Amino acid sequence: MNIHEYQAKDLLSKYGVRVPGGRVAFSPSEAESVAKKLDTKVWVVKAQIHAGGRGKAGGVKVLRDIALVKPTAESMLGMRLVTQQTGPEGKIVKRVYIEAGSDIKKEYYFSIIVDRNTSSVVLISSTEGGMDIEEVAAKSPGKIIRVVIDTVMGLQDFHIGKIISAFKFTPAQGKRFAPFVKSLYKAFIETDASQIEVNPLIETNDGEFVALDAKFNFDPNALYRHSDIALLDDPDERDPLEVQAADFDLNYVKMDGNIGCMVNGAGLAMATMDIIQLHGGKPANFLDVGGSATTEKVTEAFKIITADQEVKGILINIFGGIMRCDVIASGVVTAAKEVGIKVPVVVRLEGTNAEKGREIINNSGLAVESASDLIDAAEKIVKAIGVK
Asked: What residue stretches are annotated with the ATP-citrate synthase/succinyl-CoA ligase C-terminal domain (predicted)?
């Protein structure tokens, strides 16, 4: 789960990380009111969307005249902001962050992530802050400093010392940098974050380290422990179909293909997408209906899949364990009739009462085809949508 910049900064400030003064605004007049309360001669108006690259796209404006805050906010609110991370469809700006300008001496990059390959936490930093870190990593990998932290040991002074040494900080700089890292790490661990990114992290002319921008990503499986953080979720920033799926306890992620997938089990869903790709097709989504594929869930899953205008065919791949395949097949038929499926549908059932399930599918009178195994299912749905 992602949150907005203003939410991230509010959270970081509670952990002792220094951030510029500022507040969110939902209207031009509110933006003007916030600006008047900031003790500054420079005001920054920032569009709040869940995407990077806002500055290059016109979503960040630095102003030296407070009279410009209101019209700037007015032009920004409601605009469709297109960045390299939003895709061509962009995102509608519904709130802006009004922030006091900062006195910048130097910009750095700093982030903390979970590295699943090493089962550890990694500090990633660079003296090239404010830039595309992927570009820096590709063109100047030597400027990226990675410090691996054993989660049992936790953050130690020597971890921070590696960065201080690489950055060639003076003792005075190191003394101020260390508390920043410790506070950020504490926030990362205690909120069950999967990533915190501060880009840029700035050093001001008075020697302070300040998070000029901030991004949080939280492990959704841990949100039950953080009801306060869960409330920060902004459904407007997520795909509407993903929001709809979550309401029915369905795990759905939209992709850019044209074969809709309905599967029970995350591992099986990944295998299904792989085999579709292997046979020349492209999956349109990841959709896991879970272990209890009820008729209601299957019906809702059909609605979500067919709401995607790019879907030209649907592959249903169900393994019946405790849930019998004949019960699942009946649910598929009922759901297909209710939704009114107008694209080819191939169903592969395996497990308890699989043969009975296939009979139900074949005798349904619907344009639904059963498959003997996963390879057969992939071949049939790819052929059905006309992929050669």
From this structure: 262-382
